[in-house]
Amino acid sequence: AKRAGRGRSRLFQPGMDTLLHERREMEIDLRRALALKQFELHYQPFLDLASDEVIGFEALLRWRHPVRGNVPPLAFIPLAEENGLIVKIGEWVLRTACLQAATWPGERTVAVNVSPLQFKADTLLETVKAALERANLPPRRLELEITEGALLDNTDSVIRTLNALRDLGVMISMDDFGTGYSSLSYLQKFPFNKIKIDRSFVAGASADSEAILRAVAGLGTSLGMAITAEGVETAEQLARIRGERCTHVQGYLTGRPMAAEQIGDFLTRPDPV
Ligand code: C2E
Ligand code: CA
Ligand code: CA
Ligand code: CA
After folding, report:
1. Which residues form the EAL domain (predicted)?
2. ipTM above 0.95, yes or no
3. Cα(7) to centroid of ligand 2, in Å?
4. Considering 32, 159, 188, 196, which has the largest number of Cβ atoms within 10 A of its Cβ?
């Protein structure tokens, strides 16, 4: 009876009360999800373009809800950011990703998405240290992906945290570069190891997006940063990316996100490209 609202909304226009009710239900469920072990991490490979080797995986959060099914991250992460739950969820993600990465063959890195809110929570450095120690994972094998939202205010404290993480030996990537308010000055101001160029610029939909990709890759390279092209889906896109100053590639072409148990098999398969 509790979720009758879902069926009802197909018959009637969902009113404000329905939407609020649905949101409240989702929030209640989200608060319980950690304890009920409904979260899982999937991993998407990324390749080094010089060697065509899979050198790491990005951890992507999945919520398996018994009634809602698989809830995509973009459907619940904004809510978890609004109510602060993302900090606890993010700690679980860091812990789990480090533990799982420690079982992978080779020196592969694990990239973990860090919400701006975690960044501002003051506990990030301690959380990262604890996750690495518990998994006995060398810091160089952890990469933190941050978005420009983390950089908007408190510049000094953000730079301090970034520097402390880098001193620890963790790598820092600027995620989704080019999508929000990111400005080229960020690349000079903040000590990133890598820029991930959003897939909207990789798809090659327009001459403009190609020009932006080229400019960002050029500037990042001259600042000594690695450059990942995100969302590469076709062989044509990959061929084009190889002509740019990108160092890494990630996308459906080279591998979809997969369950942790699939990684061993995936790595013994012949080269995807
Ligand atoms: P993101 O960090 O930009 O992650 C890449 C997203 O693009 C993933 O979606 C991935 O499945 C998708 N993707 C990868 N390759 C391709 C491709 O070739 N084509 C297309 N169309 N899509 C591709 P996903 O897993 O749904 O995650 C969405 C977003 O949710 C992520 O975007 C990230 O912002 C957020 N997210 C995921 N996991 C976490 C997490 O643990 N913590 C936080 N704070 N955010 C997370
Ligand atoms: Ca990411
Ligand atoms: Ca991204
Ligand atoms: Ca994105």
Report:
1. 23-271
2. yes
3. 34
4. 196
Report residues near ion ligand 2: CB below 5 Å. Answer: 113, 145, 175
Q: pLDDT of 61-116, one tens digit each?
A: 999 999 999 999 999 999 999 999 999 999 999 999 999 999 999 999 999 999 99
Rounded Cα gap, residues 60 and 126, in angstroms: 22
CB 170 less than 6 A from any atom of ligand 1 = no
Nearest CA-CA partner of 171 in 213, 142, 130: 142
Given the CA of residue 198, which atom of ligand 1 is nearest to it? 3
pLDDT at 2 over 50: no
Ligand index nearest the alpha carbon of residue 74: 1
- CA-CA distances (angstroms) from residue 273 to 55, 70, 223, 236, 264? 14, 30, 28, 12, 18
Whether ligand 1 lies within 6 angstroms of the CB of 49 is answered as no
